[in-house]
Specification:
heterodimer; A: alpha+beta; BirA Bifunctional Protein, domain 2; 7-stranded mixed β-sheet; 41% helix; rod-shaped; B: alpha+beta; OB fold (Dihydrolipoamide Acetyltransferase, E2P); Phenylalanyl-tRNA Synthetase, Chain B, domain 3; 6 domains; 5-stranded antiparallel β-sheet; 43 strands; elongated
Chain lengths: 352, 866
């Protein structure tokens, strides 16, 4: 009987060693440790054994059973591991295949830049003031100290609107955001004409010029204008405010310089150059090797403009500045064709 | 304005300053230098990409190799008729030089020249521009055999030296040119191209720039020395002036010079004029131009004898007046011009002579009989060139010249120059304002040059009609003003010193300073404006860079924000979150372009359109976005929006500019990838889902979508209007097949929406949330068979109404039709969520469900589908 048990064990373990998959393993389990397996037969016939045989055979049979079961467990784990390894191997991806594109919405680059500029200005206390796009000559020019036939008008080719005979006050598309200065000042000063409140606004919006549409010139473009009016606002304050803005816009190290210039609605006026942020002032194509980029125009609000806005120039003073978000984007991103902006080709827009 | 540095040096000592230093100082003070053009002077060489502050062009002349030389004899070339061989002395040795220059050809074979001709001589190895190439091509002189004769050097034309693009003849230097001197030392130059802003018009001349530079560097301005030797009868005895309207013509000055000999000006003068961008004509015309560029006063020279002839036995009388409408004048460019009362004329008693301040008349212009062949445009022919054209033959050249210097109303000149399209050096200056004080100085300077270059004799005195003398502006300035507006602490004496550098007269008073503007300035006003004008000069003179930077000390105004702007930005964020790309389009379009989706009779029309397709301001934002979508139609998927104004005309007034939102979607719902193919296309419900997201984000809850047939551009069965709080705020749907046909879209449907943002913004949002319950929900599906005509929204509304607040969600998850259900019927399957502030039992949910089903049966004839 002991021989038989040894034989059962030997045969079973031998057949187990060649098994590679779960199905064969299940079959083996039925054949070798199942109810009708030879080993279980030994247990079934246990009662028939003699009193002497019982303990010896009992111990031996149990030992074989434990051996087979533990071998089975070990084998089961091995088969499982092998199967997992195989399937992992089979599931291997080409990780260099491209990711699936996510179709997301985006803001137009001009809006993105406007937000950037306006966010900085808001932190500096300049709040958004929006104004109309179609204007009268009075607001776009005359109240801003451009009298009719003034040479400064040559600097801005104007698109006019058909509106009947209006003499010296035709209707036009605004050439600049500056008419908003007058509208804001009048709105504010009307609140308390004897002691108008101080103003700090940022006025964004589309402006228009009579130009050919080319890589370098457009008929419409955004401007952002800043205006501060109050008592004792000085040219030094203008310089300080612009310096703050430039630091936040172009980085702490950005050097800047003020060049005397001319705008009819400010005096003194200046153009501000920032050290080229593309090359750090070393000279590159963007700054045409000059090391400087012209980024905004500014000046002290002209006394006539203050007066026209309801602010007494003997008591009040102020400054204003204007800049172009599209120009900033072009410089920063080396865009050499301004037509991209209103062309709205999604291949351009999706790069922002 | 183009300014040769050599000319500037006549009025200011520039020792120790490089050309770049000068350009930088001017640029920072408001006289922006756009370009530096070298014509001989040593020039900084920049490597590719190396930083250089100014755009720099031109040519430096090698001092060893390019020198002044003299031609001693012009000999024939043994093998070429058109070439000559020159015996030339370069200061060190004799050279044999080959040339084809036409302007010395006539001296061929005339033997040893009595008076040697001074020329610019370039030795072997010199770098020059190629005189025969198109444009500017650098070349190096190399030894070669030309028709058997050794050639290694050349006499230069202006083009070869980079002075002008003239290459037909060689430069003939003045007789006193020092042979052997490096040419760069003799006439080497650099030209600053300066932008003159309107407030800097006073500086559109050499002395103006010199004055600025003197103030900026603390150097002394050398005032021009004007001394005239006069003889003969006085001008006054020969001419009288009558000004009919002093507002138009505040001053008119005449001088007279007799017995001039018309010939070319000295080469130094011609060269400076050419570098300044003015053609050299003859010594008389050149003198007027030279004095103008130098001092800023445009001058006009009349042929005195023509005027005398016209006056007959009477004394010449010059009359200035406004032209009569329709009056005609032939200007010296040969064009007969029809005039209006805006134009001002200089006349004599016989009629008009010139268009004041803009262009002279042809009859009385200075005449050079040696160049009697003019082409049709009045341009003199090049040497040796015969031109088809009119032949003027007035007989002899001008001998006596009457010289005009005047002051004109700048607006009239500006409008006249524009009207007749006659931009000129004179009208450029007059149309920006020239101070009347300059008229006298200008005439004297002109006479001085004519006497020097044409050997004339100046008549004593001037005739000076000066009916409207401008008042010198006087401005009171206090140190307090300087502090209040510029933010710098300066004493009255310091302010005074800064202003005196710019020739202001100053007087210290008790309160501060009384400042009188100098005579050349018309841009300084009085009162508050005058104060700003003067403070600008203080700031420039002090240097913008020296003014400190400070933070605003004045009170910060109350921060109020801009709710409308912020709301629109929030709207943009929601649209972007919904996967839509923002676009920004042109405001200008045409009715034809918009007619593809909309029709309007009234537009805001552009009076001077850029192009016919941009003749009006848009009335439809959707039309603009559709055009962009069409342009992008080759993209697999287009989903875009714009937020912006449209323009509604108001008769004889500013238009309304209401704000709109337009959305266009077409193409694939999901972007294809290497394993994603055949994506479904955007349809009505893709857009509706986004609108739902948008309106939820704007915190609206009372939203109704209703069928609409009022939109001709939309598919009648696939369009809806959106009501918020009972008011229609927008419409959306699929583009009507007939509208779509007008565009070049693909097969996919085009889904569009347009919202009125005033109405949308005007609707009250309802804030608040639905609490999130802690108790378990019960989910249940019901499928209902209904008539086709029953709207899904009606079913959902009834379910919600009947279910009450326990039914927290109703979601349509299937719409199904087939024969078993029956014709004209559909099945709608809803997933209901029951939830309460306690744990619901199945029985409680079933009770509600039964109530709902009964209600739907009764109200809509619905049948529960089992």
């Amino acid at each position: 009987m002991l021989d038989k048990l040894n034989e059962i064990e030997k045969t079973a373990l031998e057949s187990l060693s060649s098994i590679r998959d779960q199905a064969a393993l299940d079959a083996w389990r039925v054949a070798n440790v199942g109810r009708s397996s030879p080993l279980m037969q030994v247990f079934a016939e246990f009662g028939k054994l003699s009193k002497e045989e019982k303990p010896v055979i009992g111990v031996a049979a149990n030992r074989v059973k434990v051996a087979l079961e533990s071998a089975l467990e070990e084998k089961t784990q091995a088969v499982k591991n092998a199967a997992l390894a195989k399937s992992l191997e089979e599931e291997k991806l080409d990780v260099t295949l491209p990711g699936r594109e996510i179709k997301v919405g985006r803001l137009h680059p001009s809006t993105q830049q406007l937000r950037h500029v306006l966010a900085i200005l808001a932190e500096m206390g300049f709040q958004v003031y929006t104004s109309r796009e179609v204007e009268t000559d009075e607001y776009n020019f005359q109240l801003l100290n451009f009298p009719p036939h003034h040479p400064a008008r040559d600097m801005q080719d104007t698109i006019y609107v058909e509106a009947g005979e209006r003499g010296d006050n035709p209707i036009m598309l605004r050439t600049q955001t500056s008419p908003g200065q007058i509208r804001a000042m009048r709105e504010y000063s009307a609140r308390n004409p004897n002691n108008p409140p101080p103003i700090r606004i940022a006025s964004p919006g589309m402006c228009f010029r009579h130009e050919q549409i080319t890589a370098r010139s457009e008929i419409q473009f955004n401007q952002v204008e800043g205006l501060a009016v109050g008592k004792n606002i000085t040219f030094a304050d203008l310089k300080g405010t612009i310096a703050d803005f430039v630091r936040r816009m172009f980085g702490e190290g950005a050097r800047l310089r003020f060049r005397a210039s001319y705008f009819p609605f400010t005096e003194p006026s200046a153009e501000v150059d920032v050290e080229c942020f593309v090359c750090g002032g070393k000279g590159c194509q963007v700054c045409k090797n000059s090391g400087w980029l012209e980024i905004l125009g500014c000046g002290m609000v002209h006394p006539n403009v203050l007066q026209n806005g309801g602010y007494d120039p003997k008591v009040y003073s102020g400054f204003a500045w204007g800049m172009g978000p599209e120009r900033q984007l072009m410089l920063r991103n080396k865009i050499n064709d301004i037509r991209y902006f209103w062309g709205n080709d999604t291949r351009f827009l999706e790069q922002f | 304005m183009k300014l040769p540095i050599s000319w500037l040096k006549d009025f200011i000592d520039l020792d120790g300053l490089t050309v770049e230093d000068i350009a930088r100082k001017l640029t920072l003070a408001g006289l922006e230098v756009d370009e530096i053009l070298y014509a001989g002077l040593e020039m900084p060489v920049y490597k590719d990409g190396e930083k250089h502050e100014f755009k720099t062009n031109g040519l430096a002349w090698d001092k060893e190799k390019i020198v002044v030389a003299e031609i001693r004899e012009v000999k024939a070339h043994p093998n070429a008729d058109k070439l000559t061989l020159l015996d030339l002395f370069d200061g060190k040795q004799e050279q044999m030089v080959l040339t084809g220059a036409p302007n010395i050809f006539h001296l061929k074979g005339t033997g040893r020249l009595e008076k040697p001709i001074k020329v610019a001589y370039a030795k072997e190895g010199s770098t020059l521009y190629d005189g025969h190439a198109e444009g500017l091509q650098l070349m190096t002189l190399k030894r070669a055999k030309i028709r058997g004769v050794d050639s290694y050097s050349m006499v230069c034309s202006e083009k070869e030296l980079g002075i002008t693009d003239e290459s037909d003849g060689i430069i003939l230097l003045d007789d006193d040119a020092p042979v052997g001197m490096p040419l760069a030392d003799y006439i080497g130059d650099a030209v600053l191209d300066i932008s003159i802003l309107p407030n800097m018009a006073r500086n559109a001349n050499v002395i103006g720039i010199a004055r600025e530079l003197a103030a900026l560097t603390g150097r002394t301005l050398k005032q021009p020395q004007i001394e005239l030797k006069t003889s003969g009868e006085s001008v006054e005895s020969s001419v009288a002036i009558e000004i009919s309207n002093p507002e138009l013509n505040p001053r008119f000055v005449l001088g007279l010079i007799r017995n001039v000999e018309i010939k070319p000006s000295p080469y130094q003068i011609q060269r400076r004029l050419k570098l300044a961008g003015v053609r050299a004509i003859n010594n008389i015309v050149d003198a007027t131009n030279y004095a103008m560029i130098e001092l800023g006063e445009p001058l006009h020279a009349f042929d005195y004898d023509i005027l005398k002839q016209r006056a007959g036995k009477k004394k010449i009388k010059i009359i200035t007046r406004a032209a009569k409408d329709g009056e005609k004048l032939t200007t010296l460019d040969g064009v007969e011009r029809k005039l209006t009362s805006m134009n001002v004329l200089v006349c004599d008693e016989k009629g008009s002579l010139s268009l004041a301040g803009v262009m002279g008349g042809s009859e009385s212009e200075v005449y050079d009989a040696s160049k009697e062949v003019l082409d049709a445009k009045g341009i003199e022919p090049k040497d040796g060139e015969m031109t088809q054209g009119k032949i003027t033959s007035r007989g002899r050249s001008t001998v006596n010249v009457l010289l005009e210097g005047a002051a004109w109303n700048f607006i009239n000149i500006r409008r006249t120059a524009k009207q007749h399209n006659l931009p000129s050096e004179a009208s450029f200056r007059f149309s920006r304002g020239v101070h009347p004080a300059l008229a006298e100085t200008g005439v004297m300077r002109g006479l001085q040059y004519m006497a020097a270059w044409a050997n004339g004799v100046v008549a004593p005195g001037l005739v000076d009609a000066y009916p409207l003398k401008p008042k010198d502006s006087v401005v009171e300035v206090t140190p307090k003003d300087v502090k209040r507006l510029l933010g710098i602490d300066l004493t009255a004496e310091e302010v005074s010193a800064l202003l005196q550098k710019l020739e202001f007269k100053t007087e210290i008073t008790k309160s501060g300073l009384r400042v009188t503007a100098p005579a050349h300035r018309m841009d300084i006003d009085e009162g508050m404006v005058g104060l700003a004008d003067v403070l600008e000069e203080v700031a420039r003179s002090y240097g913008f860079d020296n003014i400190p930077t400070t933070a605003i000390a004045d009170a910060l105004p109350p921060q109020v924000g801009n709710p409308v702007h912020e709301w629109e930005e929030h709207l943009r964020n929601l649209l972007v979150a919904a996967g839509l790309q923002e676009v920004v389009t042109y405001r200008m379009t045409s009715p034809e372009r918009e007619s593809r989706v909309t029709k309007h009779d009234e537009y805001v029309r552009i009076a001077n359109p850029i192009a016919p397709e941009r003749s009006v301001l848009r009335r439809s934002l959707l039309s603009s976005v559709l055009e962009v979508a069409e342009k992008n139609a080759r993209a697999e998927s287009v989903a875009m929006f714009e937020v912006g104004p449209i323009f509604e005309p108001v008769k004889n007034d500013l238009p309304n500019e209401p704000r709109r939102l337009a959305i266009v979607m077409t193409g694939a719902r999901i972007v294809s990838a290497w394993d994603v193919k055949d994506s479904p296309r955007f349809d009505f419900f893709d857009l509706k889902g986004r609108i739902e997201l948008l309106l939820a984000g704007l915190r609206f809850t009372d939203i109704v979508y209703a069928e609409t047939v009022s939109q001709p551009h939309l598919h009648p069965g696939k369009s809806a209007e959106v009501k918020v709080n009972g008011q229609v705020v927008g419409v959306f749907g699929e583009l009507h097949p007939l509208a779509k046909e007008k565009y070049e879209f693909g097969e996919a449907p085009v889904i569009v929406a347009e919202f009125n943002l005033e109405k949308l913004r005007g609707a009250n949002p309802s804030y608040g949330i639905t609490p999130v319950s802690e108790f378990p929900p019960i989910y249940e599906d019901i499928a209902l068979i209904l008539d086709e005509s029953v709207a899904a929204s009606t079913v959902e509304a009834l379910i919600r109404q009947t279910g009450g607040k326990t039914v927290t969600d109703v979601r349509l998850f299937d719409v199904y039709r087939d024969e078993k259900i029956g014709a004209g019927k559909k099945s709608l399957a809803y997933s209901l969520t029951y939830q309460a502030e306690k744990t619901l039992t199945d029985a409680e949910a079933a009770a509600i469900r039964n109530k709902i089903v009964k209600r739907l049966e009764n109200a809509l004839g619905a049948k529960l589908r089992s």
